[in-house]
Amino acid sequence: MAEALVKHAFTGAGHPPAKATFDLMARPTAKTGLLSWLTTVDHKKIGMLYGGFAILFFLIGGLEALMIRTQLMVPNNRFISAQLYNELFTMHGTTMIFLAVMPLNAAFFNLLIPLQIGARDVAFPRLNAFSLWTWVVGAILLNVGWLSHFFPSWNFGGAPDIGWFGYAPLTSKAFSPDISTDLWVLGLQVLGLSSIVASLNFIVTIINLRAPGLTMMRLPVFTWMALVTSFLLILALPAIAIALVEVMMDRNFGTNFFEVSGGGQPILWQHLFWVFGHPEVYILILPPMGYVSEILPTFARKPLFGYPIVVFSGVAIGFIGFGVWSHHMFTTGMGTVATAAFSIATMAIAVPTGVKIFNWIGTLWGGQITTRVPMMFALGFIWMFMLGGFSGVMHAAAPADAQQQDSYFVIAHFHYVLIGGATFALLAAIHFWFPKFFGRMVPEVWGKVSFWLIFVGFNCTFFPMHFLGLNGMPRRTWTYDSNMGWNEGNMFATWGAYLLGVGIFTYFAVLVWSLFKGKVCGNDPWDARTLEWSIPSPPPEHNFAAIPTVHARDAWWYEKTHKDEIAAEKAEHIKAEEAHGGIHMPDQSWYPLFSAFGLLVGAYNFAQLHHPVVMFGNQVLASHLPLAITGGVIMASALYLWALEGPAGYHLHIAADGKVTESRGGH
Amino acid sequence: MSSHAATGHIDHHHDHTTTTGIPNKKLLWWAFLASDCMFFGALISTHLVYRLNPPPGNAIPTQIFNIELTSFSTFILLMSSLLMALAVNAIQHGNLKSTRTMLLGTMFFGCIFLGGQVYEFDHFVHAQKMTLSNSIFGSTFYTLTGTHGTHVAIGVLLLGMMYVRTFKPATGGGLLKNIVHLAAVCVVMGVSFIWFVPDLIQAVYGANISELLSAHAKPYAAGAAALAAVFWFARTGGAVDFGEQNAIDVESIGLYWHFVDIVWIIIFTAVYLLEYL
Amino acid sequence: MSAPATTADAGHHEPSKFHFYIAIAMILAVITGVEVVLVYLPIAKWFVVTTLLLLSAIKFLFVIFFFMHLRWDKVFCTILFFIGLVLAGGTMWALLHLFGADASKPLSSAALDFARLAVG
Amino acid sequence: MTSPRSAPRTFSRLTTALFAGLSLIFLSGCKLTEIFNLSGPQSTMVSAGPVAKAQWDLFMVTVWVTTFIFIVVGAVLAYAQFKFRAKTEADEHATPPPQGHGNPFVEIGLIAGSVLLLVIIAIPTLRGIWYTHDVPEDEKANAMEVTATGYQWWFKFEYPSEMVPLPTGGEAPLVTGNELVVPAGVPVRVQLRTVDVIHSFWIPKLAGKVDMMPNRGNFLWFKADKPGYFYGQCAEYCGESHAIMRFRVIALSAPEYARWLENQKQAARTVTAESLAAAAATPTAKFASLKFEAGSALAASPGFDANPLAAWQDMQKPEPGENAQLIATGRKLFADKTCISCHAVRGHEGIGITGPDLTRVGARTTIAAGVLENTPERMHAWIKDPNHYKPGNKMFNGGYVDVDTGTAKFQLTDPEIDALVAYLHSLK
Ligand code: HEA
Ligand code: HEA
Ligand code: CUA
Ligand SMILES: [Cu+2]
Known about the structure:
The structure holds 4 protein chains of 4 kinds.
Chain A: H1 33-38, H2 43-72, H3 82-116, H4 125-143, H5 147-150, H6 179-208, H7 221-253, H8 266-300, H9 307-320, H10 336-364, H11 373-396, H12 398-404, H13 408-438, H14 444-470, H15 487-517, H16 555-561, H17 563-579, E1 583-585, H18 591-607, E2 613-615, E3 618-621, H19 625-645, E4 650-654, E5 660-663
Antiparallel strand pairs in A: 1-4, 2-3, 4-5
Helix pairs in contact in A: 2-3, 2-4, 2-15, 3-4, 3-6, 3-8, 3-13, 4-6, 4-18, 6-7, 6-18, 7-8, 7-9, 8-10, 8-11, 8-13, 9-10, 10-11, 11-13, 11-14, 13-14, 14-15, 18-19
Chain B: H1 24-52, H2 61-64, H3 67-92, H4 96-126, H5 136-165, H6 175-205, H7 209-215, H8 217-234, H9 247-272
Helix pairs in contact in B: 1-5, 1-9, 3-4, 3-9, 4-5, 4-6, 5-9, 6-8
Chain D: H1 11-27, H2 31-35, H3 50-83, H4 89-93, H5 104-133, H6 137-140, E1 144-151, E2 154-165, E3 171-177, E4 179-183, E5 188-194, E6 199-203, E7 207-212, E8 218-222, E9 228-234, E10 246-252, H7 254-265, H8 273-278, H9 302-306, H10 308-315, H11 324-336, E11 366-367, E12 372-373, H12 376-384, H13 386-389, H14 414-426
Parallel strand pairs in D: 1-5, 4-10
Antiparallel strand pairs in D: 1-2, 2-3, 5-8, 6-7, 6-9, 9-10, 11-12
The structure holds heme-A (2 copies), dinuclear copper ion and copper (II) ion (CU).
């Protein structure tokens, strides 16, 4: 599917805007309102859309978790059925990873990368919009199955129920006959397409759009981590894409990839999945490490300790991360040598990760620490992630893992790294950059209340799970007996989860309140260090009136300490740019949205390939194939028009008094 | 802006508006190709894993393959790569006419390759009785070479679009003309997908491809007519908005096309030749 | 969108590579021919395999460095592509070894028949 | 700075206290099992054999090493958080501290230290991998082989070295279902097979899990130090009723095992009025408590847990008040209601292989793969509505109800079920 990408060879970024020669439709120009959001190519708007959707799904995923916890509160509970439970944990895992944490990171990539590198946008703005809408399509495909619980005639067979890593052969037609699995396969495939396209865009942006003077070794750490993450994405996702193609072929065209009676080996799925899956967990954690590496220096008022080593260890984590996937398969009977090799390689990852922890502590050392809310979440991150990392190392000892694999010990491990790690850092980041993008502060006191609720609730929920796991409680079990010694632990964890839920609710409720009522703030409320704080909050559409010249790491900190030099430089830049016709801005476009719509139609119908099409009670088509192809044609023609449309664009002119005027035409 | 760019000579390899001097599109494509390596890496791994540990009753490749045909296809693909390189070379020197010829030639060779593949699949299915589902070798072989074939087909489509684009008029076309143009493109895509793709799938299942082709003679004729119409409407007598400054676009497609070629180089060795030892 | 454009200064026109490309293509064609003949020659198997791998590697490198211009581009393009190539190669290597290991051999055909029977 | 005055900086102190407490919990290791009731029937902390023991010992190595690191790193972090905090409003606006950039010597030292600590974990890990992989050479000779096969959602066990005659002629390995009986003190090598999806074979107190992979010849080994009754569980998600795909392992002393085996190899027990009269004096016992109650409250009743092995031994003996008449009716119903097409009762009519072998189902402590206690009431409830206790199970779907059409294949009345239960419980 990534082949669709090639069409973007036609995005004509780079040469002067040609006169529109192919206007079937007027190009949208609205700056506000629904249209402006649907057709936007502005990285900040796209970032906010990503963020908004991701938070919505985070709450949905959390709600699913609360249902799971409620079911497990007491032994032999009959709150929900086994089937629903299986759907819930599958969708909880899938949602949290693919629809909450990944897009939240994508939101920050969009919001921050161009600002941190002193650029006006990403390298391919329309492609960026395409990634966003494609992501939405994937999210719809994954979740549409829930509808059959509300409308029984929508016969999807419920939401997917195969676990977030969908081990073959449970995904085969013989064991999962309903469409929910097809929707899962295509949903993930589409999300993968979205991520690859987005990542290619970010790679080009970071490598090629840096402001003058911004060498790679001056790049903010967050941007570095975004770069590494993007590489991980483009290199890891193909493995799962192929694995998904193979399942899809098995389900729809009778191939034998994982079909045991035809000689297929289901273990191949596990390998291909984890070749993706392990780098994936670093995809989830590296950007959070980036946020923390920005927040700690800000609130310690000191540069990051050992910048080159932090950067290098991030790269090392990404690289080693490709060689450890089989630690998820210690119990599959790989033999002694392979097990030993993966065991040792996995332990090796603790070293570069440890380096980061040490350097964060080094950053605090000798600093002037102010414990604002983002800082509290960032410190909480260090503590909690460290604990999660330790249980990771315990897993890496393969023989011990034989007792832990698929038990609640694993659940404890990965919630410590995913919530205590990734989520804490994301909550820190949201709080930290909120003033930048909304121009308002979040009240400290309420932020702190939510932090403590979350911190305590989180530990109450997941710490007991280590012991539940050691005490033999298997994961993905919908019920358990009362004589197993798991009653107290589960009861405790469930109350913890409710507390955590209250904390999360408080956190977001306060954000919503602040959106309207928060105290208005200036450019740089935290006395921060990187370029995004040098521009107004919220940032203007063109980001920088003058593209900054970077003289040092922590460029804004340098600017703050060398005000005169910088002011003169900026005035010159503005003049130079105006002489070239002003600031060039790309036009909005319908086609990213249209092509994603085509993809939705195509993929949705493809999932139902072997089902007849019924309309108004009559069968009208023998299969969904023609509709699926129609979707493909819609997508392809939208991409074609996109190619012919070109980036076009207009110019902004900044007067001496800071007033911005717009002009069209020009070149 | 006419085809012979007024901007003077262009340094094709360095773009001074980017930090590294590498044009954005070129970087995008190289990054994508790095990613595509993993795609084919996973696919080829799947094929080899099953090939090296075959289940009982697996198909025997050497009894199925037709190495002469495959060698010929390999040669054809190599030559199309040459034409592609020449097309890029031509546009970099502002030679639009030669660019068009080379693009058409590349497409033509690509189509021969695809035709060879269709023939090969048809032959394997009917003469050799190897289908997608009756052996694991069939599953991995068709999926791997089919994915490669899909890449080639997409390449041909892109080249076609690029060819049409070389005629993009400098002064704007009429609305009606544009609509006709779009409709023709849709018809071509619709025909090729709605009939051709299911036919191909059915062929791999065991249906007879020449029967399928003749059964759908009319729609294919309609498709061919529409294709001719697109090319007709695309032609412009006047000044065109395409020239040396678009070299990067042609070069991008070229990168993709060459990549598909090198993937075939590997497939040819790993999937075909090594079987004969 | 990016830094203020310093206009593309008028670079030199490189000489046309027309004949060069044709020469490359001929070499590639010849190598392919050699490959096909090679498999039928009665020489040691290990030798043929190594030669085949070597020859296709040479073809591969010719295409990426000449047709795909890497030789004349900034090295970063080469690095970028080789990151993907090396990781893909490494993953393939690891997978083939994992599946080649004794512990990973699939069950015998008897067991397979059993599975077939049980599934129906 | 526009933010309000920050709240009291209790953060560092609270976290330090919390983690000191938590690490104490980790440190106290074994005693913990009692404090927190961590010696449940599936506890990995209470090993009953050398494999589980090796795994637990390695785990404790990882715990000690990481706890050490946590204390050191945590202490430094807590100290930094506390020492360098801005104590007053003025502090926050003071001139920034020196903008130092790092220290390569510290970095390299810490990296070296981490590597060293990892080596401490890596060595026993490697040793453990080879030790837990297969029966040690010197014990190979007296190791016993069994084959365990996973089905959605129950286990079949075969004893390849114990051949029994088949009704159709020929011989086949002895088969049991859901309860694996082995001799204590003998290494057991379990071949792991599956007929459908991936399952995983896990007896926490005896050995960590190994998956049952389709098309793969996996195996695992364990040894029970002493006779005992052990809980097992499928540990790989395998569909709707994965949660309740359980099994039991019973380790017996050598003589008791021999006696058990001898009995197993006989054809199914047939109860007639005469045989009852002859055995009138048989001492009988009833299997202990009821506690696997769906929807039941928290408390576990102590009876069964007190001595499950004794409870198992009791189950081996015929029950009081057997009714030959009723049993004969049950046996007939078992054939009439098509039960025999899925279940084997060796020596009787049953020949099916898609469900568990029921030749000695009356002697099991649990039915339906560890879900229900094997009392007549539970058995009755199971036969009446298997889907209530195990959603999606293949006895209901496909056996009682045609999956394609959703229609019932046969009906059972309560008296009929009573007869079936009497029959099945007579199979000891
Ligand atoms: C954000 C995501 C994230 C991160 C960062 C990690 C980090 C690590 N993970 Fe984790 N992991 C998951 C997410 C993550 N994991 C998920 C989701 C699963 C389950 C998937 C599923 O089954 O559903 C999983 C499962 C998982 C397993 C498989 C368990 C099983 O199923 O049996 C293993 C096994 O080795 C493992 C190991 C590790 C290790 C060694 C690290 C290391 O990177 C940790 C390194 C960090 C530290 C060690 C702490 C700080 C270091 C120091 C202070 C230095 C000194 C320390 C030492 C010298 C030890 N993880
Ligand atoms: C980033 C990833 C992530 C995150 C953040 C979480 C968050 C949580 N998860 Fe987990 N989880 C996974 C990733 C994640 N999870 C994965 C990958 C699996 C494995 C799945 C599988 O096995 O396939 C898993 C599995 C998993 C299980 C095991 C299920 C099983 O194996 O049977 C449990 C059980 O307790 C659990 C609990 C929780 C809880 C209580 C939270 C809490 O942190 C949630 C907190 C959030 C809230 C409580 C929401 C609060 C919101 C409101 C109250 C407002 C709601 C209102 C509106 C919607 C408007 N998760
Ligand atoms: Cu079998 Cu889970
Ligand atoms: Cu992992």
